[in-house]
Amino acid sequence: MVKRTPEQAEETRRTILAAARHLFETKGYTDTSIAAIVHDAGTTKGALFYHFANKEALFREVWTEVQLEMDAETRAAAAAAISSTDPYAAFLAGTRVYFKWASTQAYQRIVLTDGRAVMGLDRWQENDDRLGRNNVANGLRYLAKQGHISDERVVPMSVMLLNALNGAGFSLSRKDPGVTADNLFEAFEELLRGLR
Amino acid sequence: MVKRTPEQAEETRRTILAAARHLFETKGYTDTSIAAIVHDAGTTKGALFYHFANKEALFREVWTEVQLEMDAETRAAAAAAISSTDPYAAFLAGTRVYFKWASTQAYQRIVLTDGRAVMGLDRWQENDDRLGRNNVANGLRYLAKQGHISDERVVPMSVMLLNALNGAGFSLSRKDPGVTADNLFEAFEELLRGLR
DNA sequence: GCCTTATCATACCAGTGGTATGTAAAACTT
DNA sequence: AAGTTTTACATACCACTGGTATGATAAGGC
What we know:
Chains A, B: This is TetR family transcriptional regulator. Two copies of one chain form a homodimer. The first copy, chain A, is mainly alpha-helical. Chain A has two domains: 1-52, Homeodomain-like (Arc Repressor Mutant, subunit A, Orthogonal Bundle); 54-193, Tetracycline Repressor, domain 2, CATH 1.10.357. In chain A, 76% of the residues lie in helices and 0% in strands. The longest helix of chain A is centred in the middle third of the chain and has 26 residues, at 55-80. Chain A is elongated, with a radius of gyration of 19 Å.
């Protein structure tokens, strides 16, 4: 049997994506061969190259998948934490969830480490601006509207704060001595509240 | 002629390193083939694999070379800017030079982007801790000793600030609208002076 | 003057991402 | 219902890659 129903085709597509995601996460992009992916997925290269243009396109789909999951979770956390007493509350809740993601191997390898190297900087920016940084910028814009930080600081600050969180995630996962999720995030909070 | 004098051997080694550095900088690690390197260097694979264990080892030497140049320049700038009136002066002078490096294509591709992906996180950390982050940590330790920031903040802050600068470099080189080297660095300075 | 050894050059190899082609079943046409 | 087209793969193949094994030649020590 070679031809499947559309549902079956979607199924093999998802199977390939799942196998690729797992391998990209554990072994990295370059150390993951197409042969290994289709082996784990229980299919062949024919199926893979039918569903995806090439290895990089497959990676981009995995990358986007991870980013969308992160995005949804951080937005939800921020929305749920909106407070009338502390204008920083929603922003901090969102960043705390993002920080949790940035500490996972999946996010580090797929999104942060390999993502930049595999797709060029341009494509990475294009996607990351939309998903990652834009949320930070929106949060800062809200703080600016409340008068807590200055307007023209929003853009440069969003870049730096997002990257600060990425670095914090790396630091945590590498178990730097004397570093915990809590004291890292406290430091970040201090950084943020110090602004004017 | 196949055998050379030691000086000639060193020369070919340097030629290979230079060709590799140029290609890694302009085309990236994966899009640079060994064949292209030895072609540009005017030698053969035999010479390359005699002088370097493998492609990754060659890359690591290039990486270290770039990092050492950056390190020397930032240290010099910081040392030259030590001031009795402003305790932040030396630190800011050093970070300003680092920021300039972080805006160059060479540093972005070789050190920041490909570096993490090619050598694993472990090796990258190991080297980056020594060269990049350690300088930031030392600067912060100095500020802590003066009582401007708290001691236990030094480590987490050094991670976050270094990554903030990296991000700033990316942002600058991608020409984000309304972003200049000056206003980026002013934002960073504000971030730093906001600490206590 | 011989022998060892450093410094390459060349031929070769296994594995890689990617393509061309074959093929069977589903879906559409009439 | 039969025939045709198209989808969803499977298989065989290819150019190229990093890396290795082997060969060659001159330098340097004895």
